[in-house]
Amino acid sequence: MRAQNRLEPFAHRCRVYYEDTDAGAVVYYVNYLKFMERARTERLRQLGFAQSELAQQNLLFVVHSSEARYHAPARLDDELRVTAQVLELNRASLRFVQQVWRDKDATLLCEGQFLVAAVRADTFKPRAIPVELREAFMAHGSGTQSNAGE
Fold this sequence. Notes:
By secondary structure, the chain is α+β, with helices and mostly antiparallel strands. The protein has one domain (10-144): Thiol Ester Dehydrase, Chain A (Roll), CATH 3.10.129.10. Helix content is 21%, strand content 37%. The protein has three helices and six strands. It has helices at 30-46, 51-56, 131-139, and strands spanning 10-15, 59-70, 79-89, 93-102, 107-120, 144-145. Strands 1, 2, 3, 4, 5 and 6 form a six-stranded mixed β-sheet that branches.
């Protein structure tokens, strides 16, 4: 079954702080990954699922693989819009496509894809994403669903 997303992707807003930058007041490249991690976490929270509560249910999400492309630098005090859209929803994983935009001039700064695996908190072995969470993603138009087992 495939369901295409026709909605605007979820977006988390943040600001570039001094701690995010290098000596030239430019965001250090790895910090874009942190901004994207926060957007994925806030996407879960917006759907009603806090990661701390999921951990109590023996569920963690871990990044399996990531890919990022950098287009332009963010600088100290820039306001950013970080999107987090599920591109693919599998039994035990999610593939997110994400972008980081500078708000004031709508410039795409960075984009990437992240394969995030669902694992048991006690063993770090793969586990199925709970039905309620899968349904929440699908109800909000997130990505395509794949029946492939992972």
